[in-house]
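Why should sequence recovery work at all? Because a backbone constrains its sequence more than one might expect. Tight turns favour small or flexible residues, buried strands favour hydrophobic ones, and helices have their own preferences. The token representation captures these environments compactly. In the example below, the structure is given first.
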């Protein structure tokens, strides 16, 4: 029985190349300092960055912007997204099998947040410091990236975003 499990389940997982996704590390300057936007995943409700699969006809950075819109209602500033790192996590497939997935992360400066976006009723979003974001996410590599982010972005002068009550916690 064990040889069949090894051959049919374990070996394919070990030999499978990593899949690829893109994520938006959405940020703004606030009176309290640099903030990043976290959202909850739809099923497990854990804190994540908006992310998804590459899209035909879009560069990876464009796909990251599109995911940030669909999952978090992000309307970016005119500043182009900038790749700031990569992390790996075990994505659980629909069959329950974990598959290593590499995620390229793009910094996206937020101009505003929409209250009406495709996944508005499915996710919670929240502005937090990079330090708090690093503590909330489950992926160690993403946590490290978030801790380094303020230093990476420091020279780019993010534009302060007006803070109103509807955007403070949403």
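From this structural description, the recovered sequence reads:
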């Amino acid at each position: 029985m064990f040889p069949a499990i090894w051959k049919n389940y374990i070996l394919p997982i070990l030999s499978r190349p990593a899949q690829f996704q893109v994520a938006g590390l959405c940020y703004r300057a606030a009176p309290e300092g640099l903030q990043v936007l976290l959202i909850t995943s739809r099923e497990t409700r854990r804190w994540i960055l908006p992310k998804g699969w590459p899209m035909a006809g879009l560069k990876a950075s464009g796909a990251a912007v599109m995911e940030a819109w669909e999952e978090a209602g992000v309307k970016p500033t005119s500043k182009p997204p900038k790749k700031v790192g990569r992390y790996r996590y075990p994505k659980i497939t629909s069959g329950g099998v974990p598959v290593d997935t590499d995620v390229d992360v793009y910094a996206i400066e937020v101009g505003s947040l929409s209250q009406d976006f495709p996944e508005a009723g499915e996710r919670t979003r929240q502005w937090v410091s990079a330090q708090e974001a690093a503590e909330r996410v489950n992926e160690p590599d993403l946590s490290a990236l978030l801790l380094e982010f303020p230093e990476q972005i420091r020279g780019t002068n993010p534009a302060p975003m007006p803070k109103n009550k509807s955007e403070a916690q949403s």
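A few observations help interpret the result. The two ends are 51 Å apart (CA to CA).
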